[in-house]
């Protein structure tokens, strides 16, 4: 699936899922891809997030990688922004990682 032919249903499903992640919880790219019905498309989820409109109200900051890390380079402004937003919701970092066991959103939970 290339970024030019990401199916609209996939896009809508991913956006709906991101909008469903509660404050204080996180989801992994691959988790969202799987829930959207495309288990091997975590990079497509990343592309959708990268291309979100500037004025989007989706809680993009609640999506991190499966290791519990922010995917932006550590010294980047986006990394600091995402970390600040997560910490403001009560998500705690230890060694630049979030405990997926503690903070991972489980749909329908």
Explain what this protein looks like in three dimensions.
- By secondary structure, the protein is mainly α.
- It has one domain (3-103): Arc Repressor Mutant, subunit A (Orthogonal Bundle).
- Helix content is 41%, strand content 7%.
- It has 5 helices and 4 strands; from the N terminus they run αβααβαββα.
- A two-stranded parallel sheet has the order 1-2. Strands 3-4 form a two-stranded antiparallel ribbon.
- Helix 2 packs across helix 3.
- The longest helix is centred in the N-terminal third of the chain and has 13 residues, at 8-20.
- The protein is globular, with a radius of gyration of 13 Å.
- The mean pLDDT is 91.
Brief account:
It contains five helices and four strands, in the order αβααβαββα. The chain is mainly alpha-helical. The chain has one domain (3-103): Orthogonal Bundle (Arc Repressor Mutant, subunit A), CATH 1.10.10.10.
């Amino acid at each position: 699936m290339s970024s030019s032919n990401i199916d609209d249903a996939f896009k809508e499903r991913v956006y709906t899922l991101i909008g469903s992640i509660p404050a204080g919880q996180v989801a992994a790219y691959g988790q969202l891809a799987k829930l959207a019905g495309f288990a091997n498309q975590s990079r497509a989820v990343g592309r959708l997030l990268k291309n979100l409109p500037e004025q989007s109200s989706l809680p993009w900051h609640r999506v991190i990688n499966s290791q519990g890390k922010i995917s932006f380079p550590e010294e980047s402004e986006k990394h600091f922004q995402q970390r600040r937003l997560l910490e403001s919701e009560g998500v705690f970092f230890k060694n630049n990682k979030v405990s997926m066991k503690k903070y991972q959103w489980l749909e329908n939970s």
